[in-house]
Amino acid sequence: MKISYNWLQQFLQIDWEPVKTGELLTDLGLEVEGIETKESIKGSLKGIVVGKVLTCIQHPNADRLKVTTVDLGLENPVQIVCGAPNVAAGQKVPVATIGTTLYDEKGDGFKIKKGKIRGEESHGMICAEDELGLGKGHDGILVLDKKLKTGTPVAEVFKIETDYVFEIGLTPNRSDAMSHFGVARDLRAGLIQQDIKLELISPSVSNFHVDERTLRLDVEVESKEATPRYCGITITDIEVKDSPEWIQNRLKAIGLTPKNNIVDITNYVLHELGQPLHAFDAQKIKGNKILVKTLEEGTKFTTLDEVERELSSEDIMICDGDSNPLCIAGVFGGLHSGVTKYTKSIFLESAYFNPVSVRKTAKRHALNTDASFRFERGIDINTTEYALKRAALLIEEYAGGKLASDVSDFYPVKIEDFQVFLSFEHVYRLIGQEIPKETIKNILASLEIKINSVTNGGLGLTIPSYRTDVQREADIIEEILRVYGYNNIEFSHKLNTSISFDSNKETKIENVIANQLSALGFNETMANSLTKPEYTALSENINEEANVEMLNPLSNDLKVLRQSLLFSGLESVSYNINRKNNSLQFYEFGKTYHKYNEKYEENKHLTLFVTGNRTKESWSVASKSTDFFYLKGVITSLLSRLGIDKVKSSPSKQDIFSEGISFGLGKIKLVEFGVVKASLLKEFGIKQEVLFADFNWDTILKLVGNKNIKVSELSKFPIVKRDLALLLDSKVSFNEVYNLAFQAEKKLLKEVDLFDVYEGDKLPEGKKSYAVSFLLQDETKTLADKQIDKIMQKLQQSFEKNLEAVLR
Question: Which residues, 6+ apart, have CB-to-CB distance to 319 below 8 Å?
Answer without folding.
Answer: 290, 291, 292, 293, 295, 325, 326
